[in-house]
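Need residues for this backbone.
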């Protein structure tokens, strides 16, 4: 999910190109979130971030040499903006991801999707750009924050607005309008020695098939409590202008080479 997602905000970028793209984006401040869309409840102004908290279930498959692959599912609630302003109705999110790790070292996500809903209506979808975290020595347990960078693939109209009340769904669909969501969670092990949450088990089976075990041993099967925040970023106009100039220059070079 504490100071997407205030104590720590960025994971390791997937590539230098993605890092450059991320650097060209500005964190949105004083944006607006209307969690009931066209309903009667007024939009809430978000100074910087939306809180999230929930749980995740992780199944590890060990591949030798202390290395492992993992599948993860999670669900989260967002009840506050900036840790103080209530959201009504609240938002719910589901996460599905895969990755690799090394005992006592680090973990990295390879795939991931984050879907956000209001009531029973999905209002936003994000694809993972990168995600990473450090592990406690000798274990497969996260040592504090796990950070993610997500790229918005869809936003429903009428829910997300910038400070000037421009609907952010229009930015997602525009050629230059890459929108990034950032999330950071503090992952805390829970439920050791007990059965994993029935809801998380059902979510996992729906995404990945049967679990190898259902008892939480925090090695082969982990249940984690997560809390954090998410922020939004949009392209800075100056960066887009520089990108345009770079493309013009590249086109000129190509024309000269053809000549």
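Answer:
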């Amino acid at each position: 999910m504490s100071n997407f997602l205030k104590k720590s905000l960025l994971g390791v970028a997937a590539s230098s190109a993605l890092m450059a793209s991320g650097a060209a984006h500005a964190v949105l401040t004083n944006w607006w979130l209307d969690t009931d869309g066209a309903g009667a409840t007024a939009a809430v102004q978000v100074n910087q971030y939306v809180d999230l908290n929930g749980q995740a279930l992780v199944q590890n498959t060990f591949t030798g040499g202390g290395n492992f692959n993992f599948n993860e599912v999670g669900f989260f609630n967002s009840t506050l903006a900036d840790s103080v302003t209530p959201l009504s109705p609240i938002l719910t999110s589901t996460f599905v991801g895969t990755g690799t790790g090394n005992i006592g070292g680090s973990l990295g996500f390879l795939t991931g999707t984050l879907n956000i809903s209001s009531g029973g209506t999905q209002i936003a979808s994000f694809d993972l750009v990168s995600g990473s975290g450090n592990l406690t020595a000798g274990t497969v347990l996260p040592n504090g924050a796990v950070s993610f960078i997500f790229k918005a693939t869809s936003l429903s109209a009428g829910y997300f607005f910038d400070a000037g009340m421009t609907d952010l769904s229009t930015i997602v669909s525009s050629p230059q309008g890459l929108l990034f969501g950032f999330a950071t969670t503090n992952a805390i092990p829970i439920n050791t020695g007990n059965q994993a949450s029935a809801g998380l088990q059902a979510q996992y089976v729906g995404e990945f098939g049967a679990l190898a075990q259902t008892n939480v041993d925090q090695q082969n099967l982990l249940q984690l409590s997560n809390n954090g925040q998410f922020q939004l970023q949009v392209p800075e106009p100056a960066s887009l202008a520089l990108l345009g100039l770079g493309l013009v220059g590249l086109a000129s070079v190509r024309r000269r080479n053809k000549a």
